[in-house]
Structure formats: C-alpha cells, structure tokens
Amino acid sequence: xxxxxxxxxxxxxxxxxxxxxxxxxxxxxxxxxxxxxxxxxxxxxxxxxxxxxxxxxxxxxxxxxxxxxxxxxxxxxxxxxxxxxxxxxxxxxxxxxxxxxxxxxxxxxxxxxxxxxxxxxxxxxxxxxxxxxxxxxxxxxxxxxxxxxxxxxxxxxxxxxxxxxxxxxxxxxxxxxxxxxxxxxxxxxxxxxxxxxxxxxxxxxxxxxxxxxxxxxxxxxxxxxxxxxxxxxxxxxxxxxxxxxxxxxxxxxxxxxxxxxxxxxxxxxxxxxxxxxxxxxxxxxxxxxxxxxxxxxxxxxxxxxxxxxxxxxxxxxxxxxxxxxxxxxxx
Length: 331
Description:
This protein is α/β, with parallel strands linked by helices and 331 residues long. The chain is 43% helix and 14% strand. The strands form 3 sheets. The chain has a 4-stranded parallel sheet with strand order 2-1-3-4, sandwiched between helices. A 4-stranded parallel sheet has the order 6-5-7-8. It has a 4-stranded parallel sheet with strand order 10-9-11-12, sandwiched between helices. Strand 3, helix 5 and strand 4 form a beta-alpha-beta unit. Helix 2 packs parallel to helix 15, helix 4 runs parallel beside helix 5 and helix 13 runs parallel beside helix 14. The longest helix is centred in the C-terminal third of the chain and has 17 residues. The termini are far apart.
C-alpha cells in the first residue's frame, strides 16, 4: 500500500480502475451522502462532471457556497487555485481535488515572488488581483476581484489611487477602458481566452447574422469590441436565460455551453473556435485542457480514498483571506 500511495503522490491523482459496469455517477452520489461531502464544479468542466455536482458556478462563488454548507468534505472540480480558495474560506474542512496537476495558465503567469518584487519597485501602489491567482498572490493583495465585480471594486478606490492590477492583462485593460483609469497592468493571460480572434467571430456572424456575441472580459480588446455582451460566465449565462429567443456566439471556454443549453433548451449556441492554424480550424471550440483533467474516474477515486487533499499554509491563508474579505466589504 505504501508503494501504491507513493505512486499516487507522484502522479497527483489516483488512477485505480473500477470494476467494469460500475455506475460512477450513482457511486459518487452514494459516497457524498455517506461521507457528508459536496461536489463543486466549475462551468468549464466536462458536462458529466457538472451533472453529478451539487453546485455549479464560478470559482469564488463555489468556494463561498461550500463554506456555507455543513459538509465535512469539499471536492473542487476545477483547477488548483480554486481548491486553495475553498481551503482559505473553509479551513476546518477537508478539501479534495481530483487532479493536483490541474493548474491555470493565468495563475501561473503571476508568481508570488515576482509580484512581491514588483510591489517593492512601485511603493505606494495598491494591488488588486483577479481571483484567478494562487493563495500566495492573494496574500500580497489588497483586494481580490472577480470578472463580474472588477469594475465595481475598482470604482471604490479614489480616482488618483495608484493601482497595480493583475494578473490578467486583458481584464485590466477592459476595466481601464470603462473607468478611465490608468492602472499598471500585469502582463498575464488565460491560454484559452487569448486564442479567440475577431476573424473567427466574424466568420460565425456571416453564418449566423442574427446571433449576438457573448464574450468574457479575459478576451483581447478587439474581441470585446465586436461583442454585444461582455461579462463573467455567470453574467453571460444570466443574459442567455433572460433572453432565450436569441441565438448566441459564445467567446469563452466551451464548457459553459453545457449549462447554457441545459437552462435554454431551445436556444442555439455557437462556440467560437480558437484562432486558425495551418490547414484550417483546429477544432470546433476552445477548451481548457486543465479543466478537462477532471474526470468521473478521478472524482470517484478522490472521494473513495479522500485524496489528494489541498492545504494552504496557515500564515498565507491568514493574509489571503483579508483580500477576499476586503472585496466582500467593497462589493
């Protein structure tokens, strides 16, 4: 067992097979009941993961919801920083992640040591960080924001406040453009949202001229310029639900289409593919490989063995939670 556990640790997930014919969904729900566990799934996970989850949503909303439950175990089906946020807000609970290797290109673009050095080079600046960051970066942050409340939070700071905004350059640039600010922007980005292009959207518009374009603010500014609605995944979903008779071209990670289609059964949604590569389009949609590392088998084994767990250094968590609490105070 010791050698097997070592192998699991090195892999970052448990890949033990199950008996053929096992109803994974039924077994996962059974274990949730027995172990008093809740499953949180981000909108960008595979549809089958969303279907088995207790709650679906954006990262911070899921962490806050998990903290409100009386569950002993939280299983965060998303990426690593999301599990960290769950642990920060629920330090007494066991937080599990189906695959520790499920990282985030955006969070990885801003290392805590690099931000610390940048702060030292810019004394007198406040730091506003997107929630898509590690716990260590949150610990160096004055206020966290989401894509849904970033403008609202930034607007609470004096107009002449010196602000470093990170790590998403596109989101920061968008907030600068609609607030008139000149925040210093960290040069980070999401590998999914960076791949959307105006050319691909215009092709879809030719095919579906009546369709409205929904875009996430992590997209580049030319993409946002041709969008009819710009907002977080939750905002885009809400707009589609409230206007079900429309057709939509969706410029965000394609996993959101599962929930959009579930809530708007008769609405047509067209995912924007990534930029054209040699030989034509690479695929019909733009997906996050990290999010798709969450699978039903990994989720089953995670619940069964209650591993791998995610912990956050207590001192880091103590500082990181302040930036989240500050956001809640301001929003």
